[in-house]
Specification:
By secondary structure, this protein is an alpha+beta fold. Helix content is 33%, strand content 26%.
Length: 190
């Protein structure tokens, strides 16, 4: 066996055990879920049994992960630099694990619009956390006040708008693919 193969083999075994422990499952419980004997699973985790592809697929499913995630070795792209949109005051980071997701940091100075006709609605989901200041989230006819370190998650089919209250605020938003597309369509042209 080559050194790279041994490293991957050991990494996969550690992941299987770590995922099992994180779920709070005993060897017996994971073995039952994966339709393996408890002794086979123990030998897999301890390196005394060969890792077979069919068992890895079964274990990945039982651990609610994918085979790709179980055997992934890429660590060279851990740090990501933001794409900066100075015109709109935005920083965006694509999420590599889920190419449809985007993280965005935005500084807001204006309150949300008073006119409900200026609220946007589009497919998707958004999640945001207030990094500093106070943000106002308008969802339909409801108004939510979000202080520093508070978060909100909502379906974007609900008409919504976000703004600052009492001075500037900074938010960090996470958008699924549909929500990101909705905001790209709504963004003012350069």
């Amino acid at each position: 066996m080559t050194q790279d193969h041994e490293d991957l083999d050991g990494l996969v075994r550690k992941r299987i055990r770590a995922l099992r422990v994180a779920q709070g499952w005993s060897l017996e419980e994971l073995a039952t879920r994966a339709r393996l004997s408890q002794s086979s699973l123990s030998r897999i985790e301890n390196g005394r049994r060969r890792l077979a592809l069919d068992q890895l697929v079964t274990l990945a499913r039982a651990l609610d992960t994918s085979l790709d995630q179980l055997v992934e070795t890429a660590t060279d792209d851990v740090v990501t630099s933001p794409m900066i949109d100075g015109v709109h005051g935005l920083m965006r980071w694509p999420i590599k694990g889920d190419p449809g997701m985007t993280v965005m940091r935005q500084r807001m100075t204006e309150p949300p619009p008073d006119n409900p006709a200026r609220m946007r609605a589009h497919p998707g989901r958004e999640w945001l956390v207030v990094l500093s200041g106070t943000a106002i989230l308008m969802l339909g006819h409801r108004r939510f006040r979000l202080e520093t370190n508070q978060a909100a998650e909502f379906p974007t089919m609900m008409p919504h708008a976000i703004g600052a209250e009492g001075g500037p605020c900074e938010i960090l938003g996470i958008f699924d693919r549909d929500a990101r597309r909705g905001h790209q369509r709504d963004a003012p042209e350069d």
